[in-house]
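STRUCTURE:
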């Protein structure tokens, strides 16, 4: 247990994948954790598991991150339950199926922007009055694709590029309040969403092998590894702000077959 005094962390999209990994890591270290997702069953089950045998320190709050009023309620509910907010991890987001630009509608792009970008903005806006009081931090989950691009993912890459740029701009403003703002840009992290892509692939075995081979270390990362980085940024990296942290096993390095011709 790392915390001897109160530390409250909010994780959006906290019921699966990287978000769930962060929830479990912070809870295991003794933090109080508030986490959200749109549905109820997975969240309530995780809340019950984390609170089993100890004082209630995990709280699930249903929240649609595309609805600003629900995001504002998430922050208010967190303060009501635990009295403070030390850290927000903006993890909620979605990656649409791969298509060229011809296959995306304007409406689909707007909807994705509402979740992946506006949701992050809203969470920061409504959490910051509380985070400033304790000189806490914000961690925005971006993506390596924001830097290197990705095949048939123009809308997703654009939203993650916005998250990275927003992180840097917010870090400048919030430094005056002693608040640190950083980003994490994962590469291939094995999550349920990745498994879904493998299952839907014409050749699942090759899809998984290609996913592993994209990293210098020859494997995908784990949600636990991302959670450890998030914990370091929230607790130990007290002289770090405005930085986009790659967790990629070197996927962005070296030459490779790139041509689409």
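SEQUENCE:
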């Amino acid at each position: 247990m790392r915390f001897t005094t109160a530390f409250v962390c909010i994780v959006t999209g906290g019921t699966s994948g990287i978000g769930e990994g962060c929830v479990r890591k912070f809870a295991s270290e003794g933090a109080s954790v508030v986490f959200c997702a749109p549905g109820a069953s997975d969240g309530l089950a995780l809340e019950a598991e984390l609170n089993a045998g100890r004082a209630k320190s995990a709280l699930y709050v249903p929240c649609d991150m595309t609805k600003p009023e629900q995001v504002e309620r998430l922050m208010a509910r967190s303060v009501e339950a635990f009295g403070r907010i030390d850290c927000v991890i903006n993890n909620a987001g979605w990656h649409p199926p791969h298509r060229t630009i011809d296959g995306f509608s304007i409406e689909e792009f707007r909807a994705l922007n509402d979740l992946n970008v506006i949701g992050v903005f809203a969470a920061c806006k409504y959490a910051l009055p509380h985070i400033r009081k304790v000189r806490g931090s914000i961690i925005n989950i971006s993506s390596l694709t924001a830097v290197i691009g990705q095949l048939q993912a123009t809308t997703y890459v654009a939203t993650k590029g916005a998250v990275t740029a927003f992180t840097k701009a917010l870090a400048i403003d919030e430094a005056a309040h002693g608040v640190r703002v950083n980003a994490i840009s994962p590469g291939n992290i094995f999550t349920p969403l990745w498994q879904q892509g493998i299952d839907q692939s014409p050749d699942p075995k090759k899809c998984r092998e290609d996913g592993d081979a994209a990293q210098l270390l020859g494997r995908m990362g784990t949600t636990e590894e991302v959670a450890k980085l998030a914990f370091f940024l929230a607790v130990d990296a007290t002289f770090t702000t405005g930085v986009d942290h790659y967790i990629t096993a070197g996927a962005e390095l070296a030459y490779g077959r790139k041509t689409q011709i």
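REMARK: Residues 8-191+222-247 form a domain with the Rossmann fold fold (CATH 3.40.50.720).
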